[in-house]
Design goal:
Layout: H1 43-53, H2 57-73, H3 85-94, E1 105-109, H4 117-123, E2 128-133, H5 136-149, E3 154-158, H6 161-164, E4 170-176, H7 181-188, E5 192-202, H8 206-212, H9 214-220, E6 226-230, E7 239-245
Parallel strand pairs: 1-2, 1-4, 2-3, 4-5
Antiparallel strand pairs: 5-7, 6-7
This protein binds S-adenosylmethionine.
InterPro entries: rRNA_ssu_MeTfrase_G, SAM-dependent_MTases_sf
Main location: cytoplasm
Function: Specifically methylates the N7 position of a guanine in 16S rRNA.
Length: about 250
């Protein structure tokens, strides 16, 4: 089994870009605090955010500020998303934390601007996160934000999931808006150990995507996929997750 970050003492080996690992950045290289006024956490969502992030709520606010500023500037987020960053993106992703087992090693495939990977890393300091993202600019942004937030439970890996992850043997893979379930399964399921699970954030198409993915589901999973809703107790719009359990190795 591949050694896990934090256990091996070789955490830097997960990062394929020389000289760019976030752990190696000096404080002086970290981004200046964002200059643009960040979107306020809406009062009606404060309780949910407080419950989900706890001690990390300040860091979550700083993350949202990054999304609204450099996230837009660098083209990771559309400017129209700013007013709904909290509800539609950050909290919507963070509620998936309820489905992540204690102490899990989690790979977030196609992290983009850290959705859901960074939201979950903030909400779940007991877990370790690998953010897998092929695009250089996005990886650079993720490294910058991880360093600024001081997140010690995150490693950013540059590459495509099918190239970087074969022996990671993680407990959970997460993915949002990467591809339909049929194409997502071959990208994500090989990263899992025999008892692991894919948590794919989906919308109303969840049942259709499951129907279209019958063949890869037979290959990678021995059980029926589940459609779950999370966050219905704290958010106006809950999050739909397709959970696929890996076939035992
Ligand atoms: C539409 S974006 C979604 C980003 C983020 N998950 C979100 O919900 O906002 C899809 C992301 O998946 C990444 N991606 C595409 N194919 C991938 C692959 N084979 N392995 C890992 N990431 C991939 C892209 O670079 C992109 O950042």
């Amino acid at each position: 089994m591949t050694e896990r970050p934090g256990q091996s003492g070789h955490e830097g080996s997960y990062d394929q870009r020389p000289g760019l690992h976030h752990d190696e950045r000096q404080a002086s290289e970290r981004p200046a605090p964002v200059g643009q006024e960040p979107p306020e956490l809406p009062a009606e969502l404060y309780e949910a955010a407080d419950q989900i992030f706890g001690d990390a709520l300040d860091a979550a606010q700083r993350y949202v500020a990054h999304l609204a500023d450099t996230g837009i500037e660098w083209g990771l987020i559309g400017p129209r998303e700013v007013p709904r960053l909290w509800e539609r993106h950050v909290l919507n992703c963070a509620v998936v934390a309820d489905l992540v087992p204690q102490g899990a090693l989690v790979a977030d495939v196609g992290s983009g601007a850290g959705l859901p990977g960074l939201c979950l890393a903030l909400a779940r300091p007991d877990c370790q996160f690998l953010l897998i993202e092929p695009l250089e600019r996005r990886v650079e942004w993720l490294d910058m934000v991880v360093a600024d937030l001081g997140l010690e439970n995150v490693d950013v890996i540059r590459g495509r999931a099918e190239q970087v992850g074969l022996n990671l043997d993680v407990d959970v893979v997460t993915a949002r808006a990467v591809s339909g379930l049929k194409s997502l399964l071959p990208l994500t399921m090989p990263l899992l150990g025999g008892r692991g699970q894919l948590l794919a954030i989906k919308g109303r198409s969840a049942a259709d995507e499951i129907a279209a993915a019958a063949k890869p589901l037979r290959k990678y999973s021995g059980a029926e996929p589940e459609i779950l809703t999370v966050g219905d107790d704290v958010l106006p719009q809950p999050t739909t997750v397709v959970r696929v359990t890996a076939r035992r190795k």
